[in-house]
Design goal:
There is one protein chain. The protein is α/β, with parallel strands linked by helices. The chain contains 1 helix and 16 strands. It is 18% helix and 23% strand.
Length: 185
Protein backbone atom coordinates (compact mmCIF):
# COMPACT_ATOMS: atom_id res chain seq x y z
CA UNK A 1 0.00 0.00 0.00
CA UNK A 2 1.31 3.41 -0.98
CA UNK A 3 0.95 6.47 1.26
CA UNK A 4 1.18 9.09 -1.46
CA UNK A 5 0.67 12.71 -0.44
CA UNK A 6 -2.40 14.41 -1.90
CA UNK A 7 -1.83 16.81 -4.79
CA UNK A 8 -3.39 20.28 -4.53
CA UNK A 9 -5.83 21.60 -7.13
CA UNK A 10 -3.52 23.68 -9.31
CA UNK A 11 -4.09 26.66 -11.61
CA UNK A 12 -1.16 26.90 -14.01
CA UNK A 13 -1.36 29.24 -17.02
CA UNK A 14 0.26 28.05 -20.28
CA UNK A 15 2.87 30.85 -20.06
CA UNK A 16 4.24 29.52 -16.75
CA UNK A 17 6.68 26.69 -16.15
CA UNK A 18 6.41 24.12 -13.37
CA UNK A 19 9.35 21.72 -13.42
CA UNK A 20 8.30 18.07 -13.54
CA UNK A 21 10.84 17.55 -10.74
CA UNK A 22 9.13 20.10 -8.47
CA UNK A 23 6.80 18.64 -5.82
CA UNK A 24 3.32 19.76 -4.85
CA UNK A 25 1.58 18.54 -1.69
CA UNK A 26 -1.54 19.49 0.23
CA UNK A 27 -5.24 19.86 -0.37
CA UNK A 28 -5.67 23.66 -0.54
CA UNK A 29 -5.55 25.45 -3.91
CA UNK A 30 -2.25 26.27 -5.61
CA UNK A 31 -2.49 29.27 -7.95
CA UNK A 32 0.46 30.25 -10.14
CA UNK A 33 0.45 33.50 -12.15
CA UNK A 34 1.45 34.20 -15.76
CA UNK A 35 5.12 33.90 -16.80
CA UNK A 36 6.19 32.33 -13.50
CA UNK A 37 8.92 29.68 -13.28
CA UNK A 38 9.01 26.99 -10.57
CA UNK A 39 12.44 25.38 -10.82
CA UNK A 40 13.77 21.86 -10.26
CA UNK A 41 13.08 20.24 -6.87
CA UNK A 42 11.16 23.23 -5.50
CA UNK A 43 8.54 22.13 -2.98
CA UNK A 44 5.10 23.79 -2.91
CA UNK A 45 3.06 22.82 0.16
CA UNK A 46 -0.63 23.73 0.51
CA UNK A 47 -1.25 21.55 3.56
CA UNK A 48 -1.75 24.55 5.86
CA UNK A 49 -3.61 26.86 3.48
CA UNK A 50 -3.83 28.11 -0.09
CA UNK A 51 -0.68 29.12 -1.94
CA UNK A 52 -0.79 31.99 -4.43
CA UNK A 53 2.26 32.86 -6.52
CA UNK A 54 1.95 36.01 -8.65
CA UNK A 55 2.96 36.73 -12.23
CA UNK A 56 6.58 36.94 -13.35
CA UNK A 57 7.97 35.12 -10.29
CA UNK A 58 10.83 32.64 -9.94
CA UNK A 59 10.94 29.96 -7.24
CA UNK A 60 14.50 28.59 -7.14
CA UNK A 61 15.85 25.08 -6.94
CA UNK A 62 15.17 23.26 -3.66
CA UNK A 63 13.14 26.23 -2.32
CA UNK A 64 10.25 25.27 -0.03
CA UNK A 65 7.08 27.35 0.07
CA UNK A 66 4.25 26.87 2.57
CA UNK A 67 5.91 24.63 5.15
CA UNK A 68 4.52 24.51 8.68
CA UNK A 69 6.41 27.01 10.84
CA UNK A 70 6.63 24.47 13.67
CA UNK A 71 8.52 21.98 11.55
CA UNK A 72 11.75 22.48 9.68
CA UNK A 73 12.52 21.27 6.20
CA UNK A 74 13.36 17.80 7.54
CA UNK A 75 9.97 17.56 9.30
CA UNK A 76 11.51 17.80 12.80
CA UNK A 77 9.51 19.70 15.42
CA UNK A 78 10.93 23.19 15.97
CA UNK A 79 8.03 24.56 18.03
CA UNK A 80 10.50 26.02 20.53
CA UNK A 81 11.89 28.22 17.76
CA UNK A 82 10.15 31.43 16.82
CA UNK A 83 8.78 30.79 13.35
CA UNK A 84 8.81 34.11 11.54
CA UNK A 85 5.87 34.61 9.27
CA UNK A 86 3.60 32.31 11.26
CA UNK A 87 0.11 33.76 11.40
CA UNK A 88 1.17 37.20 10.18
CA UNK A 89 0.11 38.51 6.81
CA UNK A 90 -0.64 35.34 4.88
CA UNK A 91 -4.07 33.91 4.25
CA UNK A 92 -5.67 32.75 7.47
CA UNK A 93 -9.06 31.71 8.79
CA UNK A 94 -11.11 28.77 7.58
CA UNK A 95 -8.56 28.00 4.88
CA UNK A 96 -5.68 27.90 7.39
CA UNK A 97 -2.33 29.65 7.06
CA UNK A 98 -1.70 30.24 3.39
CA UNK A 99 1.12 31.96 1.55
CA UNK A 100 0.81 34.94 -0.79
CA UNK A 101 3.71 35.79 -3.09
CA UNK A 102 3.02 38.98 -5.04
CA UNK A 103 4.11 39.65 -8.66
CA UNK A 104 7.76 39.75 -9.82
CA UNK A 105 9.22 38.04 -6.74
CA UNK A 106 12.43 35.99 -6.87
CA UNK A 107 12.85 33.28 -4.24
CA UNK A 108 16.40 32.00 -4.34
CA UNK A 109 17.53 28.38 -4.14
CA UNK A 110 17.04 26.60 -0.79
CA UNK A 111 14.93 29.41 0.72
CA UNK A 112 12.14 28.34 3.08
CA UNK A 113 8.94 30.42 2.99
CA UNK A 114 6.79 29.33 5.90
CA UNK A 115 3.01 29.04 6.10
CA UNK A 116 1.40 32.38 6.94
CA UNK A 117 3.96 34.45 4.99
CA UNK A 118 3.22 37.25 2.56
CA UNK A 119 5.97 38.52 0.24
CA UNK A 120 5.50 41.93 -1.39
CA UNK A 121 5.79 42.77 -5.09
CA UNK A 122 9.27 42.99 -6.61
CA UNK A 123 10.97 41.37 -3.62
CA UNK A 124 14.12 39.26 -3.87
CA UNK A 125 14.47 36.66 -1.12
CA UNK A 126 17.82 34.98 -0.64
CA UNK A 127 18.41 32.45 2.14
CA UNK A 128 15.62 33.71 4.43
CA UNK A 129 12.89 31.84 6.29
CA UNK A 130 9.22 32.76 5.88
CA UNK A 131 8.62 36.38 6.73
CA UNK A 132 6.30 39.27 5.93
CA UNK A 133 8.15 41.48 3.49
CA UNK A 134 7.02 44.83 2.11
CA UNK A 135 7.22 45.61 -1.61
CA UNK A 136 10.73 45.94 -3.11
CA UNK A 137 12.56 44.39 -0.15
CA UNK A 138 15.88 42.55 -0.47
CA UNK A 139 16.85 40.01 2.21
CA UNK A 140 20.00 37.90 2.10
CA UNK A 141 22.35 35.92 4.30
CA UNK A 142 21.75 33.99 7.48
CA UNK A 143 19.95 36.32 9.92
CA UNK A 144 21.45 39.38 8.24
CA UNK A 145 19.29 41.55 6.09
CA UNK A 146 19.14 44.73 4.15
CA UNK A 147 15.75 46.23 3.50
CA UNK A 148 15.98 48.20 0.29
CA UNK A 149 13.05 50.58 0.19
CA UNK A 150 14.10 52.20 -3.05
CA UNK A 151 10.90 51.05 -4.71
CA UNK A 152 8.37 53.29 -6.42
CA UNK A 153 8.15 55.81 -3.54
CA UNK A 154 11.88 56.53 -3.62
CA UNK A 155 11.84 56.65 -7.42
CA UNK A 156 8.94 59.11 -7.33
CA UNK A 157 10.77 61.24 -4.74
CA UNK A 158 13.93 61.31 -6.89
CA UNK A 159 11.87 62.18 -9.98
CA UNK A 160 10.10 64.96 -8.06
CA UNK A 161 13.46 66.36 -6.89
CA UNK A 162 14.76 66.29 -10.45
CA UNK A 163 11.58 67.99 -11.70
CA UNK A 164 11.93 70.72 -9.06
CA UNK A 165 15.50 71.37 -10.24
CA UNK A 166 14.36 71.51 -13.88
CA UNK A 167 11.53 73.92 -12.97
CA UNK A 168 13.94 76.14 -10.99
CA UNK A 169 16.28 76.31 -13.99
CA UNK A 170 13.34 76.97 -16.34
CA UNK A 171 12.09 79.75 -14.04
CA UNK A 172 15.55 81.35 -14.01
CA UNK A 173 15.74 81.10 -17.81
CA UNK A 174 12.28 82.66 -18.19
CA UNK A 175 13.22 85.50 -15.83
CA UNK A 176 16.48 86.06 -17.73
CA UNK A 177 14.59 86.15 -21.06
CA UNK A 178 12.03 88.59 -19.63
CA UNK A 179 14.84 90.81 -18.28
CA UNK A 180 16.55 90.73 -21.67
CA UNK A 181 13.32 91.77 -23.40
CA UNK A 182 12.79 94.62 -20.95
CA UNK A 183 16.38 95.75 -21.38
CA UNK A 184 16.01 95.60 -25.18
CA UNK A 185 12.81 97.73 -25.21
Amino acid sequence: MSTKSPKPPTTLPPTSTLSPLATKTGTHPLTIGEKTCIQVRAHLDTTHGPLTIGSGCVVGEFASVGLNSDKDVDGKDDSGDEGVGKGRGGLEGEEGEGVVIEDHVVIDARVVVEAGSRIGEGTIVELAAGEILPDYTVIYGFNSRRIDRSGPEAARAKAAEALVEVLKKAEMAIKAAQSARKAGN
